[in-house]
Amino acid sequence: MKEVRLNNGVMMPAIGFGVFQIPVEETERIVSEAFETGYRMIDTAASYFNEEQVGNAIRHSGLKREEVFVTTKLWVQDYEYDDALRAFDKSMKLLGLDYLDLYLLHKPYGNYYAAWRAAERLYKEGRVRAIGVTSFSSERLQDLFLHNEVKPVVNQLETHPFFQQKTANAFLLQEGIQHEAWAPFAEGQNEIFNNAVLKSIADRHGKSVGAVILRWLNQRGVVVIPKTVHKERMRENLNIFDFMFSDADMQAIAGLDTARSPIYDDMDLATTKYIGTHRIHD
Q1: So what's the pLDDT on residue 226?
Q2: Which H helix or E strand runs over 144?
Q3: Helix axes 81-95, 112-124, angle to 10 degrees
Q4: For 240-249, which contacts have Cβ atoms below 8 Å and span 24 or more sequence positions?
Q5: Are 47 and 106 in contact (CB under 8 A)?
Q6: Chain-centre distance of CA 232, in angstroms?
């Protein structure tokens, strides 16, 4: 498995397996199949409500703990300092782990400064190997690391052919922060798997459209965490390191960028209010 080196020296797989929106009752089986297929990085979150099932799959996999890179995320509701520490303990209990590889602040709302300082404490105590953020704009990310001690290792952003995050990617490269893509398939929006440009490139390379998208992100230096419930797709999504795109292919995909999300608008007040106030527990 190809890896990337994070800014604190920790090695992270270049491709992992995401479990967002996988039904809870199917999560353990599907994650187990992902391990059987060859995935060694799992991305979950407190707000996905499947940490326990992910932990069960890890325990039953037969893999050594150090062979699996595990990411989970802290939800906005628990961004106060003491709440963050309690939420981390709950996640670790559900996962059944002694340490976590990567802990992310899930959204840039609420008291994320307090949450970050709690994450820094967990990192300094060795309970987490690396800490980062999700869906932070470059401005908020820069403000966060300028006024705290530990620089985030990752910013997990919605990134796919229709929303390529070119400016954010350049900033992350400049700052030595790893760009990781959530929703690399745009959650199926805009008929992405039937896009003529992507299908043409896929046909030329004898690959699926999904593999083309993931390889395109990989060539841009972006870590990916695709989700699927089908074992054949798992194999297709993992088998992306045996081909490369020409400049012409890369430019053709670059031409699909709309520079906006087809999933949700970060500037929509109703959306940001919902995310910022959504509760995942009493």
Answers
A1: 98
A2: helix 138-146
A3: 50
A4: 240/15, 240/207, 240/211, 240/214, 240/215, 241/2, 241/215, 243/205, 243/207, 243/215, 244/215, 244/219, 245/201, 245/215, 245/216, 245/219, 249/201, 249/216
A5: yes
A6: 21
Note the pLDDT of residue 1: 83
Query: Which one is catalytic: 48, 79, 103, 123?
Result: 48
Structure tokens at 214: 């993931």
Task: Give the C-alpha separation, 159 to 189, whole Å.
Answer: 13
Beta bridge partners of 17: 42
Ranges of residues in the chain whose predicted pLDDT is under 50: none
Which amino acid does the sequence have at 78? D
**pLDDT tens sequence across 38-69:** 999 999 999 999 999 999 999 999 999 999 99
- Name the fold adopted by 3-277: TIM Barrel (3.20.20)
133 by DSSP, 3-state: which? strand
264 belongs to the catalytic site? no
Tell me the residue length of the chain.
Answer: 282
Q: Which helix (H) or strand (E) holds 217?
A: helix 209-219
Residue type, 224: V
Which tokens go with 279?
A: 């509760």
Strands 3-5, 11-13: pairing kind: antiparallel
> 């046909």: which residue's tokens?
203
Strands (E), 138-248: 154-158, 178-182, 223-224
Q: Which amino acid is at 72?
A: T
